[in-house]
Amino acid sequence: xxxxxxxxxxxxxxxxxxxxxxxxxxxxxxxxxxxxxxxxxxxxxxxxxxxxxxxxxxxxxxxxxxxxxxxxxxxxxxxxxxxxxxxxxxxxxxxxxxxxxxxxxxxxxxxxxxxxxxxxxxxxxxxxxxxxxxxxxxxxxxxxxxxxxxxxxxxxxxxxxxxxxxxxxxxxxxxxxxxxxxxxxxxxxxxxxxxxxxxxxxxxxxxxxxxxxxxxxxxxxxxxxxxxxxxxxxxxx
Length: 237
Ligand code: T5A
What we know:
- By secondary structure, the protein is an alpha/beta fold.
- It has a single domain, classed as Rossmann fold.
- It contains 9 helices and 5 strands, in the order βααβααβααβααβα.
- The protein has a 5-stranded parallel sheet, sandwiched between helices.
- α5 runs antiparallel to α6.
- It starts with 6 loop residues before the first strand and ends in a 7-residue tail after the last helix.
- P1-(5'-adenosyl)P5-(5'-thymidyl)pentaphosphate binds next to α1, α5, α7 and α9.
């Protein structure tokens, strides 16, 4: 999927799916189950990059503020390009260097969010979005996408309980239904790289489902790394 030795995992989903909650739980589990220690012992520092879009870089934090929390009117095409600018900076300065070091990247949202929100949600042309995603990422795709899926009303009720809604949370339910359809279409086309996780369960059960899926993936990744090491692959040395 990409030429680097690191592992690129993305969490996707609609509003209130529980991605932020599960990012923390995954980081704790990776530490407690010894995966990060293995990477540290191979001198990979940092072993784990926890990040998000928009806002994973200093430039991205400014863009996030504009995109989600300003009163400015933003044209859909301008919105698409601002997400792309956030992503270009994020990939170049943060995600790709971590994958080149051989570490794990755990990212809250990536290219699929643009297809789901700006494509299915806003109705912008899907092939144009794919082209712009390609430019912003220079083709860097995740190894694994964990799609936290739940009924739209359940997710929105969770975010409403939290208080003030951001720009996209304020949209009509129909918008968020289209976004969910977008994720569904991507998951159907995504093969083994996409895993649907039922997110309308108690937090611990969602965490367990994610861990089952990650454990299998991490084992395969580590086996491949070990084989490449014994094969003398200089990229890993
Ligand atoms: N966007 C983003 C685009 O339009 N295009 C793009 O290209 C990209 C990258 C990002 C916004 O930008 C849009 C999509 C988004 O609208 P954000 O603030 O990062 O904005 O929004 P979200 O990613 O949607 O983050 P949220 O915080 O809204 O949702 P999370 O992170 O999925 O959920 P989380 O963990 O914060 O949980 C929400 C609430 O539910 C509770 C939590 O305690 C919390 O109160 N909760 C649960 N309750 C019951 N059961 C569970 N299993 C629960 N898990 C969590």
